[in-house]
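G., the chain you wanted modeled:
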Amino acid sequence: MATTSAPRLPLAPAPRRAAGLVRPLDLLYLVGAVMLAAEAAVHIQQYSAIVHSVRWIGPLFLANAAASLVAAAGLVHEGTRSLAALAGIAISASALGGLVLSYGPGFLGWTEGGWRTALTIALVSELGAVLVLAAGLAAGQVAVARQAA
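Predicted structure as tokens:
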């Protein structure tokens, strides 16, 4: 039986956080996940109430809701946060673009008229998700740069 006499380096313990404290970066991603979940909820509600029979728009509302929930779930795990944040930004920015177009020339045959509470919630959650997730990505890059220095 062969054994090695090479010295083993002790594993460094993971940095500990005080109980109950949340890092600012974790908080940004948590808020982003909540914003994406709110966006998904609004799209599901509006699908059921209004756009379920509108060609293209109805399925896009369901696709947005599903994609938002997947991105929100990805924000929970540190290994997928950057990709999930980028996806969340793209999903929310696309939804904002569709909303803006629907008030102008129309979007895929759908034109918005008037204003509803659901539109306010959608606007706040989509814009909030873009801003918070972009801030999370930027803060993450700053943290990586500081660790490298």
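The helical segments are 24-49, 57-74, 81-103, 117-148.

Shout if anything looks off.
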